[in-house]
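Service request form, structural biology core

Requester: graduate student, group of Dr. S.
Request type: structure prediction, single chain
Budget code: on file
Notes: please return the result as structure tokens.

Sequence provided:
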Amino acid sequence: MTGLIEARLADKNIQLPGAASPAANYVPWVVSGNLVFVSGQITMEDGEIRYQGKVGEDYSVEEARQAARLCALNLIAQLRAACGGDLDRVRRVVKLGGFVNSAPGFTEQHLVINGASDLMVEVFGDAGRHARAAVGVPALPFGVAVEVDGVFELTG
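Core staff response, request fulfilled:
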């Protein structure tokens, strides 16, 4: 039987990528008690890095929102791996951390990271509502425009 979250993904025509391998000396996720800490996910799509550049210079807020959504898709893919493939084990999205490669003077990071936040609510419903940080930074790995990490609570 297909789980509720997988059915919701199918109903909304949302396809998760495979969980990417780490790009450096870290693990993609750690389970501690009932919490899953997922490492920052970047704008990887079909094995290629997308959205390289600065928001407010190379990308509009709307384009960067799509980049944040792509990061969130990768985040959920890692979460699915941490749950042994069963996303119905996710009790709550606890917190997202969003990092935006910002051009000087750009101050709409909160609108960019809404791309990730909106996806969490779309996929997990009310359990997808979370605490969050949206931070502007001068650079990100591989020059990507956005990176998002997350903390999730699992059922026992």
